[in-house]
Amino acid sequence: MGMFEPDPAFLATSHELGDLALCQARLQDDVRYPWVVLIPRVEAARELEDLSREDLARLTDEILAAGRAVRALGAQVDKLNVGALGNVTPQLHVHVVGRRVGDPAWPGPVWGHSPAQPYEAEVLAMALVSARAALGL
Amino acid sequence: MGMFEPDPAFLATSHELGDLALCQARLQDDVRYPWVVLIPRVEAARELEDLSREDLARLTDEILAAGRAVRALGAQVDKLNVGALGNVTPQLHVHVVGRRVGDPAWPGPVWGHSPAQPYEAEVLAMALVSARAALGL
After folding, report:
1. H/E element, B133
2. Do A110 and A35 form a contact (C-beta atoms < 8 A)?
3. What ipTM is given for this predicted complex?
4. Cβ A49–B64 below 8 Å, yes or no?
5. What kind and span of H or E run contains B37?
6. Which tens digits make up the pLDDT trace of A28-61?
7. Under 8 Å between Cβ of A15 and A116
8. Within a 10 A sphere around the Cβ of A115, how many other Cβ atoms?
9. pLDDT per residue as tens digits for the range A72-86
10. CATH class for the region spanning A8-135
11. Chain B residues touching residue A46 (CB < 8 angstroms)
């Protein structure tokens, strides 16, 4: 997979959960939304079309797994939002976000809406355990 | 595939391109962004996890094809944005949007940003031809 390094922007905004078959999974540091970020460990990938067919199938599996992890965080989830944007951080990554009717950004997208509300340490520790268990990490 | 009907919200905001193996493809009626919407023709699907593995593989292929169609519309595309949200219209659908540095919503998401600027008839006719050709429709 070459020289994969997550963009420093991810290190500042999320916590590492671990490595799946394709992606590094991370928990977004915003307690308002159950939110997993998947970063394919493929050097220089920016768009989905930069992945092989085999890696696209792995990514699909990992998006479904991230949805289960989001639900495992315990908050009400009325709708999953899945997005690959990358306008600010072009390294290919996929957001999987659990949305709840009436959450701060509802019904708009979470991206760019408002500053994150970071987890407190004890809640973060529990969230990491729950998300890793759901992802088999 | 059961009784598939696109939600009326799509009829008001986009133009039908045609049916791919899985999805009805539509051109979003916003001349500011080259933008294809894919709606899996699967009754009652709301989340990606509601699709079979075979349909998920088809959807992946069709997302890549929609990216090619977006590029075929002729505008500069600096980044593709792919999103399955559904907070407003929960019928499962995937947006594939070509983004340009400095476009009206850049670098934020297009969803919920500002009212669409509909195509004029002649430009629309050309866009439909280009998008259908790229999709093999």
Report:
1. helix B121-135
2. yes
3. 0.96
4. yes
5. strand B35-40
6. 999 999 999 999 999 999 999 999 999 999 999 9
7. no
8. 6
9. 999 999 999 999 999
10. alpha beta
11. 79
Residue percentage of chain B with pLDDT more than 70: 99
Nearest residue to B23 via CA among B74, B57, B58: B58
Residue A55's CB is within 10 A of a number of other CB atoms, namely 19
Order of strands, edge to edge, in the sheet holding A94-99? A14-19, A23-28, A35-40, A94-99, A79-84, B79-84, B94-99, B35-40, B23-28, B14-19
B56: which chain A residues are within 8 Å (Cβ-Cβ)?
Answer: 60
Stated pTM of the model: 0.97
Domain extent listing, chain A: 8-135
Distances (CA, A) of B17 to A15, B58, B88: 41, 17, 22
H, E, C per residue of B56-76? HHHHHHHHHHHHHHHHHCCCC
What is the tens place of the pLDDT at every residue in B74-100? 999 999 999 999 999 999 999 999 999
